[in-house]
Design brief:
The protein is 40% helix and 18% strand. It contains 8 helices and 9 strands. The longest helix has 17 residues, at 138-154. The chain is globular, with a radius of gyration of 17 Å. It starts with a strand and ends with a helix.
């Protein structure tokens, strides 16, 4: 039986994380998955995030890692993935999700099935038939769609259309091999571009990638986005150029 590790990078998510954790517990119960653990990486939250997670830990399996100061998404994803890889057996599955409740835990089961069917990495994709994005402005949708095509043209990965979504499932063996190959450099980008860089590094490892269509609910998001769009676009384009000429 495979164990499922769910990594949640969390920074000031007191309005969302309790609801998300309840939805994860319900999704695991509906799928009859008992052997799972949520790894919450609390990235220096200054609100009630930590207290809510600790309270939820009384009724579901949660491991909490805490940064005393905010370090950004890159360091938070890195610590969560490395902790999950350290704990996981070779046949286990590691899932990453955003903690703002825009990702549906109900999709985890489908992603797990795809891993069991032979995929090494499965991405919850906005660009597959059946996907929907609700609550995002048309300008942001067009920007995301354009970015997807830039990645597909400049750094193509068979089976991948969505390079930036943080909702993913990794076969533990593939994740462990990536960490063994790159060491501390596997996740060395500070900002949101870290999610792109993880794929660009794993694309060199002869892995099988796949995607499952996501219903992305930005209308569930509470509070302002933590992403600086202009900075993220600039840093991601610089990263892509760097990886092309390595």
């Amino acid at each position: 039986m495979r164990k499922i590790y769910i990594v949640l990078p969390a920074y000031n998510e007191e309005e969302s994380i309790g609801t998300l954790l309840k939805r994860i517990a319900d999704a695991m119960a509906d799928a009859r998955i008992d052997d799972y653990e949520v790894i919450v990486v609390n990235d220096g939250s200054a609100d009630g995030t930590l207290g809510i997670v600790q309270e939820m830990g009384r009724s579901m399996p949660i491991d909490i890692l805490t940064h005393q100061q905010n370090q950004g998404l890159g360091a938070t994803i890195r610590d969560g993935l490395y902790e999950a890889a350290k704990k996981a057996a070779d046949k286990d599955i590691v899932v990453t999700m955003d903690a703002d409740d825009t990702h549906s835990p109900g999709l985890i089961l489908r992603m797990i099935r795809m891993i069991r069917e032979g995929h090494d990495v499965v991405i919850a994709s906005r660009y597959r038939p059946g996907a929907r994005v609700i609550g995002l402005s048309m300008a942001r949708k067009l920007m995301s769609y354009g970015a997807s095509w830039i990645f597909r043209i400049l750094t193509p990965i068979h089976g991948v259309r969505d390079f930036t979504c943080g909702f993913r499932a990794y076969h533990a063996t593939a994740l462990k091999n990536a960490i063994a190959t790159y060491g501390d450099a596997f996740v060395d980008q500070e900002g949101f571009q870290c999610m792109v860089d993880i794929l660009l590094k794993m694309r060199k490892m002869s892995l099988i990638f796949g995607e499952a269509p996501i219903i992305l609910r930005y209308d569930y998001k509470r509070g302002a986005s933590k992403m600086n769009v202009g900075k993220t676009v600039k840093n991601t384009l610089k990263l892509v150029v760097k990886r092309i000429f390595e």
